[in-house]
Amino acid sequence: MCWNPRIHQVELFLVEREAQARGLVHVGGDDGRLSGFRVDLPSALRLTTLTPRLTLPNWLDMSSDPTHAVARQDLAFEMAHVLFLDIVAYSRLPMEQQAGVLHRLQELVRQTPEFPRAQKTHRLITLPTGDGMALVFFNDPEAPARCAVELAQAIRAEPGLELRMGIHTGPVYRVADINANRNVAGGGINLAQRVMDCGDGGHILVSQSVADVLGHLDVWKNTLHDLGEAEVKHGVRIHLYNLYTDQAGNSVLPRKLRDAQEATRLARSRVRRRRMWLALAVGGTLMLAVAAAFLMRPHPLTEKDTLVLADFSNNTGDPVFNDALKQGLAVELEQSPFLNILSEDRVSQQLRYMGHSVDDHVTPEIAQEVCRREGSKAMLLGSIASLGSHYVIGLKAVNCRNGDSLGKEQVEAERREDVLAKLHEAGTRLRNKLGESLTSIQKYDTPLEQATTSSLEALQAYSMAMKIWRSKQTVLYSFCSEGADHCTDGQIPRAGLVQDTGGNLYGTTEGGGSGTGDNGYGGGTVFKLDSTGHETVLYSFCSEGGAKCTDGNYPYAGLIQDAAGNLYGTTWEGGANSEYGGTLFKVDNTGHETTLYSFCAEGGSKCTDGAQPSGGLIRDAAGNLYGTTNFGGTNGLGAVFKLDGTGHETVLYSFCPGGNPCKDGSVPSAALIQDAAGNLYGTTEYGGTNGPDGGTVFKLDSTGHETVLYSFCSEGGSKCTDGEGPLAGLIQDAAGDLYGTTWEGGAKGDGTVFKLAREKACVDASRSLCK
Predict the structure, then answer these.
(1) Is 236 helix (H, G, I), strand (E, B) or coil?
(2) Tell me: the pLDDT tens digits for 286-327?
């Protein structure tokens, strides 16, 4: 709802729609509709309903019961300003502690200046929620924000008590509960809870309707930070803002939004990588194999299950279908962030173990044996047959252990040219039958002709080229060697490797290991692979067990190695100070791990020293380490830091000092490089002078002065032919020219390779030249 500091009329169609949808009210008025209400912002947003009366159905009329004085026959909708809050990890506390913690929270709430002020003027209804409460304010839209900040400041002095809070302005109506106590119901309070649910410990999140009001006031406008949209219960999307100050709130991006961004990025890049590799295959150039999809969801497949794709049974006599349809189906299913297809590398490895060639046709019998050996849950069988001039395409998912059908689809194509479109249709339906939600399918549903090609011949050529490549490559090691349920050797290696003088390789895995991790899949590993292919886990994170990861969690980035053989790296989360802070670590050649630094050192949600480093480190001749954090810093949107040999951390630069838009860049995601003069160079995924999403290339001198060397999307608006979103780091040649990549943008929207000439802000992109 857009608020304006002038009296204006707003149609109350939302109120009417909710009331009618609940079946609880008949809307009054001569024409059976609510005609609207008036908001007078200069007079503290006093709500005056123009047709305020709502009539309850007779069967709900409780006016005859004197104990239900509030639930009378005539009921008025009102605009309420709701603060919803709960205690983080309340259910994990022993029962004898829960009552004490809840009692202390109630005391702190009553001690805030705003609570008694609103209570004294009868402008407040308080509702217990088990692990927290809802404070429903009337008339004053600033009241919940003031109360939230006051409470957050008070909580800082309470060790072990952490809250998350959500604020929303919306319609409610007053009712009586079963004990005849005052209560409220309606969309206003429901959506306030959804806003809160999007936050983590320390967050104060507000909805668009609240931000539209507070943004007009000087005292609040610089505390509101736009987070964009988030999907909540029942697929509803809400626009959120993060409210924080130096003394209250949490500047780190909420995990729910981070996970959503990561899932979207993975799904989009998976489709784009496939299109790029297909073009290379048709042209005769081969590249590395597609990374296996790893996000899964349950029912009828659990999060740990994988699917084995069998070769299509081709009964048409047309050889183009032999390889093209399986390749097309793989592309279709890899769009899904919920399904996990067993990689062709793993299938080829099992074929060798079974005495088959990697070129052998994967029949249903062979697919079932591969499925059993890998511990996969199901295999997917495909077939195509001629029916006159038409083609019948069948897909069937089968449980590998008992042969039960998990889902099947059959479609008919009138022409050969329609086969891929119909395969897409069948694949989409099957995704739903295997447990993927319709919301997810609609979001990640690129037609095959766009995700790959409309040419069956091109798909066949690509598939054959990949088979040749796989037959010649050597897999040094496959993770999860004990099966998908036992990845103590590591899981999901995301970054590059380093090699010592003896030829040993060192790297990290994002998950797996012997530590439990906060998701049950392990906190990640540091591993060594010798020249014979023997893998050794040097260290498993989250070593304390459970969800306690003070030694770090999720090492996303790669490693660096010093002359003594010590390895240095970062973890995205964990640490001694905050679940989401992250760490800098050292692992020696015996596997002993030392946490050099834990971010969010001020405790709780204060992360002015940085939070969540996803990029790797660099090390200078004096032994100082340099890197970036995605979030945190003074302004919450990333920082560049230095860690000296004593373990002292210094923030060299905090991005977005002027608030949104972040013209200096925001969210640096990669490692830095350093020139001979000590200048640091890097990229930010977002921000710049051309809009919030373009990204930048920046330079940071030895005094901490930052210079934006280039802002992407230079043509303005959504035109980003020069590239968009540089996720990776840079390299520099002897002349000082910088080279890098963007994961989006370019002439086709699939990313670019660029060159930034020294002292010249112009990008030469490999797929689109800037003018």
Answers:
(1) coil
(2) 333 333 333 334 456 765 678 899 999 999 989 888 888 988
